[in-house]
Write a structure and sequence with these properties.
The chain is α+β, with helices and mostly antiparallel strands. The protein has four helices and nine strands, in the order E-E-H-E-H-H-E-E-H-E-E-E-E.
Amino acid sequence: MARSVQLLLIENVDNLGIVGDVVRVKTGYARNYLLPFGYATEPSDELIQQLADKRKAAEEEQRKLRVVREALVKKLEGVEITMERSCNDQGLLYGSVTQQDISAALKSLDFDVKPREVRLPQVIKRVGEFDVTVKLATDLEEHIKVHVEPDRELDLDEREEMEFDNEGNLIEKPKAEAKPEASEPQAEPAQA
């Protein structure tokens, strides 16, 4: 059985091609997605000729989209967003900040960024500052800063860190000597 098949795209498919492209894809992708949804068919010279006008329109649309995306990348330069989230006393979030959250925050600032265009390097599950990539095309991306702040004043413990030796036993640290507090001068015993 063939591992890949050659198909003619009859619709634009993100990250694959535009109308009229002849592409080679894995059989599962073709069988389960492209063919049932009507995005592709078997290639033939006759169909390629029929799709020529549609392809020209798709190419023009791609050029316009490219200009819009380039402008958006320039606008995103230096953008910082702040998000307020519920967290525990150590700054760990009860939920996480997702691509949808960041996309919604950018949309509220008039940046048309889809959730799939937000690339998180790791899951954001704590309060802090994070660098996030917004990738609009393979060669169009910009980094933004996301500040995650707690929704309340954090009561951070000022406890000392515990240390353990190689066997896992707690290393006892000598306690700081309690300084006697300067209290009222003690009366000297009366001499008789």
